[in-house]
Design goal:
CATH class of the largest domain: Alpha Beta
Number of domains: 2
Number of helices: 17
Bound molecules: nicotinamide-adenine-dinucleotide
Low-confidence stretches: none
Number of strands: 22
CATH topology of the largest domain: Aldehyde Dehydrogenase, Chain A, domain 1
Distance between the termini: 70 Å
Largest sheet: 7 strands, mixed
Helix content: 25-40%
CATH superfamily of the largest domain: Aldehyde Dehydrogenase, Chain A, domain 1
Strand content: 15-25%
Length: about 475
């Protein structure tokens, strides 16, 4: 059985003898995958000490040389691409295609961070006053840490640490204890790429490790991705301890379908948005707002498209939807379906009892479709994070936009329309951060900022893109007069 270790100061080390371990299982098959330590303050202290010790020498490594380690890592990630994607499927449940897509998105961040010599440049202005020049340079701040969720085990950690170390900081990654295998594999490859000891550290664990990171005086800043209540806690706690924080939280994404939409495209994209990764995506479409005449055709076609999904183990051929991540998470999703039913929504397709015969141990939930969902119902306003579509009907685009604006979340939203005017009105007024126009999953690529607003994001600088460089550096202004 694989027993995971922490990676501290360039070595794989076992946590203290008192540490508890969490068993890891494949959510589709029930197969045992090993166990992960639930580290605590002691291991966090060790990792911070190693990262602090490495900082001075690492920040003095020229950015172009730091980037070369990432070039090397990028080659290793390509070489081991299929293995890592397979590990993502085995520990998380998403299909192999979905795992490969997400790993590709992760690698794109490593590639983008390779451009750090340009991304990190400052600015200069001569003669800010007679004979006086002014410049600003970006400098790293010390040790950063990231805390990441279960739904993208390989990708989300890559939103953070490549930029943080490229800019000259040292780093501690605390991945989700539910899916620690793929991030561990990527850290092994970072080791193979020759990233010096202490520059990148990995501490496995749950909330004890998180709370130790948030309070540690040796850490300059925290990047977080996870559910909104934990994001808020991380934001408040880390800020109280004087740290920079960016905390990406949960979502409740609305998709508007206008009567003039290309219905084939809308249905195909929205099916992928709602049911892809079994709905466990912060960009997943959740409330499907059909306007005017779009309502009946859209609802009926989505229902039939949902019935065509093939549930199963994501490594097997022709499977188009995997399980949810755990028995506990399955219970949570089922409780939302029950809440929807009790609140009076019409259950058109009920995935609660769906079984995959070959894998009786799997945490499968079949595609589920509700109609008549009102924004005040629990399923109309809370994040379900499972394969559940909530269809609702509005008269006009204005009513649709009002409905989106009522949500406590503002992560992503999309519109399907062939009207440029409707699309422009939507993007101008909707107030959500990641907007799709005829796109079901509005996922910004590595060179654009990623993150929401309202209850979906706590902080100001978002993940990846130029925001990452801003977040991981301080701008030092130098004013000079000579002669
Ligand atoms: P989660 O909040 O349960 O866990 C995220 C991380 O926080 C994990 O590393 C976990 O160990 C830690 N954690 C959990 N409970 C904690 C507590 N009480 N105190 C301190 N730390 C704690 O989230 P999850 O279930 O792993 O992931 C799903 C959530 O992540 C969804 O809400 C989803 O929308 C969100 N998410 C958001 C984005 C985004 O870009 N906004 C991206 C991916 C996932």
């Amino acid at each position: 059985m694989t027993t995971l270790r922490n990676y501290i100061g360039g070595e794989w080390v076992a946590p203290s003898a008192h540490t508890d371990y969490l068993p890891l299982t494949n959510p589709a098959t029930g197969e045992s995958l090993g166990r992960v330590p639930l580290s605590g303050a002691r291991e966090v202290d060790q990792a911070v000490a190693a990262a602090q010790a490495a900082f001075g020498a690492w920040r003095a490594v020229p950015p172009v040389v730091r980037a070369r380690y990432l070039f090397k890592l990028r080659g290793l990630l390509e070489q081991h691409f299929d293995d890592i994607a397979t590990t993502v499927t085995r520990e998380n449940g998403k299909t192999l295609d979905e795992a490969k897509g997400s790993l590709r998105r992760g690698i794109e961040n490593v590639e983008h961070a390779c451009g750090i010599p340009t991304l990190m440049m400052g600015k200069t202005l001569e003669d800010v006053a007679a004979g006086i020049d002014c410049e600003f340079v970006r400098q790293p701040l010390g040790v950063f840490a990231a805390i990441t969720p279960f739904n993208f085990p390989a990708m989300v950690p890559c939103w953070f640490w490549p930029y943080a170390i490229a800019t000259g900081n040292t780093f501690i990654l605390k991945p989700s204890e539910q899916v620690p295998l793929s991030p561990t594999r990527i850290v092994e490859l970072a080791h193979e790429a020759g990233i010096p000891p202490g520059v990148l550290n990995l501490v496995h664990g749950g909330k004890d490790a998180v709370n130790a990171l948030l309070a540690h005086p040796g850490i300059a800043g925290i990047s977080f991705v996870g559910s909104s209540p934990v994001a808020k806690h991380v934001y408040q706690e880390a800020a109280q301890h004087g740290k920079r924080v960016q905390a990406l939280g949960g979502a409740k994404n609305h998709v508007i379908v206008m009567p003039d939409a290309d219905m084939d495209r809308a249905v195909a994209n929205i099916r992928e948005s709602v049911f892809g990764c079994a709905g466990q995506r912060c960009l997943a479409g959740s409330v499907l707002v059909a306007a005017g005449q779009a309502y009946e055709p859209f609802r009926d076609r989505l229902l039939s498209a949902a019935k065509d999904l093939r549930l199963g183990y994501g490594l097997e051929p022709d499977v188009t939807m995997g399980p949810v991540v755990s028995a506990t998470h399955k219970e949570k999703v089922l409780s939302y379906v029950e809440a929807g039913r009790k609140d009076g929504a019409t259950l058109l397709l009920d995935g609660r009892a769906t079984k995959v015969e070959k894998h009786p141990q799997g945490h499968f939930v079949g595609p589920t479709v509700f109609d008549g969902v009102h924004p005040d119902m629990t399923i109309g306003k809370e994040e379900i994070f499972g394969p559940v579509a909530s269809v609702t009907h509005v008269g006009t685009l204005d009513e649709g936009i009002d409905l989106v604006q009522r949500s406590g979340f503002a992560n992503a939203t999309s519109i399907f329309t062939t009207s440029g005017r409707a699309a422009r009105e939507f993007r101008y007024r909707v107030g959500v951060s990641m907007i799709g126009v005829n796109i079901g999953v509005a996922a910004p690529m590595a060179f654009f900022p990623f993150g929401g607003t309202k209850g979906s994001f706590f902080g100001d600088l978002k993940a990846h893109g130029q925001d990452a460089v801003e977040f991981y550096t301080d701008k030092k202004v130098v004013i000079s007069r000579w002669g």
